[in-house]
Specification:
The chain folds into 4 domains: 2-134, HUPs (Rossmann fold, 3-Layer(aba) Sandwich), CATH 3.40.50.620; 156-260, no CATH class; 286-415, GAF domain (Beta-Lactamase), CATH 3.30.450; 500-650, Histidine kinase-like ATPase, C-terminal domain (Heat Shock Protein 90), CATH 3.30.565. The chain has 18 helices and 17 strands. It has helices at 2-7, 21-35, 54-69, 82-92, 116-123, 136-150, 156-178, 183-200, 205-222, 235-283, 287-302, 339-349, 391-440, 442-458, 464-495, 508-516, 543-559, 618-628; strands at residues 10-14, 38-45, 73-78, 97-101, 128-132, 306-311, 317-323, 353-354, 365-372, 375-383, 504-507, 527-531, 538-541, 566-574, 577-584, 632-637, 643-650. The strands form 4 sheets. Strands 3-2-1-4-5 form a 5-stranded parallel sheet, with helices on both faces. A 5-stranded antiparallel sheet has the order 7-6-10-9-8, sandwiched between helices. Helix 3 links the parallel strand 2 and strand 3. Helix 8 (183-200) packs parallel to helix 10 and helix 10 packs parallel to helix 13 (391-440). The chain is elongated and about 155 Å long.
């Protein structure tokens, strides 16, 4: 059903000789692709086509070629009534959507024609009409033309306001005359009318027209002989001149106030952009984010194309970031031939260059460095095309770039502090490791060395029991050293991200049984009790690593509890996790030490009777292994005395086919 609807869609784009028409074609092509619609392009060839300039003909041919490249079928019809012919073609071709560029022309008089887009909408009411805005450069030029035109172009609205206010001023003055008021009141009323006209109308030309008209109205209605432009009194010429000057000054001041209000609104907008920039930069997480935010804010402020050279990892200028309203920015502006060369110069010298500067003054772009305290974080360039920035615009632009450099330096300093803190922590860890190893391996190595020396020198004098004890001590010390090395290697692999998990489905009780075969031989001096779950508990795990976790926890209980103590190993399933508890009734661990027990190199304050204090890797290794299985390990007190370790790993459900 969806494909049938898509196939019924037909999109028609209007062709013209406008340079921005390719943007309209590109938008229509993407729309046709999105709707899977048939795509056509229409050009209404005017009767006076031969009078088109060479430039317009080239632009038109390029636009047609661009439409064909984007899959459009070109349709050309001849006529002068463009909107009617487009609408009629859309009707007979069952077009569902018309895409047209926004026309710069506006209806300036009540007798003038409506813009092309409005006429197409009126003539094709059943077709969706999509109007694509001009590029920012076109809009800028169009706005400039409108502002210039508004200075001299009369409008129906302003003309109506002027006529009504002049008539009202004259009527009030006539009323004052009938009431016997002096001529000074009439002059004041007419000048007030001029002031109101200057405030309410757009073009300042109405101030001049109303000033002249007020003088003529005063002469016509209130100077003898009335209803003529003659006067018997020469002094009235001075009155007319003063009245005209007063009216002109009043109108000029009103227009200046309006221009000042317009400038104030622009300044308020620029100040808001600066404030927003500061807020956004405070939220940036990286230097790249800072540069991108700055580029967007500069584009918003100046409404111009912006190209930014960001700093690469090698501390040189890297790739460019181009911001433009047109997808293919090369159609809007042409980069300077020495674009990269200028940017490199600006980066090296940390000074502005390009348009309206003494360096590379022929460039179309203004290149500005993003630098502070001798550090440069990139170069931002704005397309001026022989235009100049206003002083206030340049000031706000400089402030934004300065905020960018300040934010980039802050992030860089924060990153350097972070790296320094990490390096300091690593150095401290290495120092702790060396200190702990040198301290803790001295006792077993001394024992091994002493026992070996006794065997070498007194072997024949030693009885069997003594020899067995010496061999046992050497074995215990070597096993302790082997466990130490294994823990060091394991924790090193995990910290470096090289611990590969070989996951498989395992029965938890079997893993517990296996781990008890490898615990410290002093386990015989303790009462170890296994309390397995009545259900078969299965989990996906690396059995070798989980076995190592359980060995470490049980050995930890053996070494830190008195002989004859009870160590219970309990397994159960709670929700979607399998919990294995290792519980002892030894002296326990102080509450203030519990939060640190899983930290690397933390050994607590418990003394070991045999002098072989651990270096604080066993529990840290257990925590890393369990978390690698998406599990967790916890420690709490066992009442009335002792410790309660819990290892939780996700349970696995196994379907049994009978």
């Amino acid at each position: 059903m969806k494909s049938e609807l898509d196939n019924n869609e037909r999109i028609l784009v209007c062709l013209s000789s406008s340079p921005s028409n390719q943007k309209v074609i590109d938008a229509a092509a993407r729309m046709a692709e999105a709707f899977h619609a048939a795509f056509s392009a229409i050009y209404v060839k005017p009767v006076n086509y031969d009078k088109l300039s060479e430039h317009d003909e080239v632009c038109l041919q390029n636009n047609m070629a661009f439409a064909e490249q984007n899959g459009a079928a070109i349709v050309t019809i001849v006529g002068d009534n463009v909107p009617v012919q487009i609408a009629e073609y859309a009707r007979i071709s069952s077009t569902t959507k018309i895409v047209v560029g926004r026309s710069g022309a506006e209806k300036r008089h009540f007798w003038s024609k409506s813009p092309l887009t409005e006429q197409i909408i009126l003539n094709a009411p059943d077709v969706d009409v999509y109007i694509i805005p001009d590029s920012s450069a076109d809009i800028q030029n169009h706005n400039k033309k409108l502002r210039m035109t508004s200075q001299i172009q009369p409008t129906w609205r302003d003309s109506f306001i002027t006529l009504v206010l002049l008539a009202t001023s004259a009527g009030i003055s006539l009323l004052f005359t009938l009431l016997g008021f002096s001529e000074a009141n009439n002059i004041t009323v007419l000048i007030l009318g001029v002031l109101i006209i200057a405030v309410l109308t757009v073009s300042p030309i109405y101030s001049i027209i109303s000033s002249l008209a007020s003088v003529l109205l005063f002469n016509w209605f209130f100077i003898e002989p009335r209803f003529s432009f003659h006067t018997y009194e020469p002094e009235y010429a001075v009155t007319f001149a003063i009245m005209l000057i007063s009216s002109l000054i009043t109108g000029t001041l009103a227009n200046k106030l309006k221009e000042s209000a317009r400038q104030s609104s622009h300044e308020a907008f620029r100040a808001k952009v600066l404030f927003d920039t500061n807020q956004l930069l405070q939220k940036a997480d990286s230097t790249d984010d800072v540069i991108l935010i700055t580029a967007h804010q500069v584009k918003t402020l100046l409404n111009r194309d912006v190209v930014v050279f960001a700093l690469a990892k090698n501390k040189k200028l890297g790739d460019t970031i181009e911001l433009s309203n047109v997808p293919d920015s090369s159609k809007r502006y042409r980069k300077d031939e020495n674009f990269s060369e200028i940017a490199e110069w600006v980066f090296t010298n940390q000074s502005a260059a390009g348009a309206h500067t003494e360096i590379y003054e022929d460039a179309k772009f203004l290149y500005y460095p993003i630098c502070i305290n001798g550090n440069c974080y990139g170069v931002i360039s704005i397309y001026l095309n022989d235009e100049r920035l206003e002083a206030f615009e340049y000031s706000v632009f400089s402030s934004i770039v300065g905020e960018c450099a300040l934010a980039a330096e802050g992030l860089t300093n924060a990153e350097e502090k972070k790296q320094a803190a990490i390096a300091m922590r690593n150095e401290q860890l290495r120092s702790n490791l060396l200190r702990s190893i040198s301290h803790d391996i001295r006792t077993p190595l001394t024992s091994i060395s002493g026992n070996a020396s006794n065997l070498l020198t007194h072997y024949e004098q030693l009885d069997t029991d003594t020899l067995k004890q010496i061999f046992s001590d050497i074995y215990d010390d070597s096993e302790w050293l082997i466990d130490l090395v294994e823990n060091l290697l394991s924790i090193s692999r995990i910290e470096n991200g090289k611990m590969d998990l070989h996951l498989s489905l395992e029965v938890v009780n079997d893993v517990i049984e296996e781990s008890l075969h490898h615990v410290d031989k002093k386990a015989d001096q303790h009462h170890i009790v296994i309390q397995p779950s009545s259900d078969v508990l299965i989990a996906r795990m690396d059995a070798r690593l989980i076995t190592q976790v359980l060995i470490n926890l049980v050995n930890n209980a053996i070494k830190n509890t008195q002989s004859g103590s009870e160590i219970r190993i309990v397994s159960e399933k709670v929700d979607n996790f399998i919990n294995v508890h290792i519980i002892d009734d030894g002296p326990g661990i102080a509450d203030d030490l519990k939060p640190h027990m899983f930290e690397m190199f933390y050994t607590g304050q418990n003394s070991i009777s045999d002098g072989r204090r651990g270096i604080g890797l066993g529990l840290a290794l257990c925590k890393s292994i369990v978390e690698a299985h998406d599990g967790r390990i916890t420690l709490k007190a066992n009442h009335p005395t002792g410790c309660w370790f819990t290892v939780s790993i996700p349970a696995e459900e196994v379907a049994i086919n009978e």
